[in-house]
Write a structure and sequence with these properties.
Pfam families: MerR_1 (PF13411), TipAS (PF07739). By secondary structure, this protein is mostly helical. Helices cover 72% and strands 3% of the residues. Strands 1-3-2 form a three-stranded antiparallel sheet. It is elongated. The longest helix is centred in the middle third of the chain and has 34 residues.
């Protein structure tokens, strides 16, 4: 009779709600039903779930996972080869990020004050000079940029700690929505995206919705930002970008 939804949830480390959602959207439809109508999963279903979770861990949204797995020209070996390549690249990024965090921890242990790089440790392996160049290239010498420079110049160590805590809380609220399978263009996700924008306005500069959309794209395009979000939750960088984009469109309407 195969495996029950509860057994599969236990095997895979996912929630029953997640399996129900995968069934509802046609991503993982159990092969059988019991006489009472309960879901029963076959070994082939478990193989598909394993592939789904591999791709989810690598940050692929559910709709893209479905397209990849339903491609008639693909085969299990091709999926595994692609996943291995992506995981190898991600491991290298995380290795560099871990080394940077260890360095910061040593500095803190020795009582060294935060450097400009450490102030931005929330963004991972951060290069202030390169970041400044990117800001200039994207937005030029704007009032928003000057306002950010003016405000942050006066921030204390406690200010930076507070800002990091607040930003972390926003990121984790967004990650929880992603975990629950809530669409990025839902009201809930857009509301957290708007909270993210207002956080930037309160802590750094007046961030318009259009500029926020540029930031969202940078979170995906820049591997330093992507690595930070992926370390919180696989797929979060793309999910946050899409929620910001949807929120921008909502306020433009």
């Amino acid at each position: 009779m195969g495996y029950s939804v509860g057994q599969v949830a236990g095997f895979a480390g996912v929630t029953v709600r997640t399996l129900h959602h995968y069934d509802d959207i046609g991503l993982l439809v159990p092969s059988e039903r019991s006489h009472a109508g309960h879901r029963r999963y076959s070994d082939a279903d478990l193989d598909r779930l394993q592939q789904i979770l591999f791709y989810r861990e690598l940050g692929f949204p559910l709709d893209e996972v479905a397209v990849l797995l339903d491609d008639p020209d693909a085969n299990p070996q091709a999926h595994l080869r692609r996943q291995h390549e992506l995981l190898t690249a991600r491991i290298e990024k995380l290795r560099k990020m871990a080394a940077a965090v260890e360095h910061a921890m040593e500095a803190r242990k020795m009582g060294i004050d935060l450097t400009p790089e450490e102030k931005f440790e929330v963004f991972g392996d951060f290069d202030p000079d390169q970041y400044e160049d990117e800001v200039q290239q994207r937005w030029g010498d704007t009032d928003a940029y000057r306002e950010s420079q003016r405000r942050t110049a006066s921030y204390t160590k406690e200010d930076w700690k507070r800002l990091t805590r607040e930003m972390d809380a926003i990121h984790h609220r967004m990650a929880e929505l992603l975990d629950r399978g809530v669409p990025a263009d839902s009201e809930a996700a857009m509301d957290v995206a708007e909270e993210h924008r207002r956080f930037i306005c309160g802590g750094y500069y007046d961030c318009s919705h259009e500029m926020h959309a540029c930031l969202g794209q940078m979170y995906v395009d820049d591997p330093r930002f992507t690595a930070t979000y992926e370390n919180i939750r696989s797929g979060l960088a793309v999910y946050l970008r899409d929620a910001i984009k949807a929120n921008t469109a909502r306020h433009a309407a």
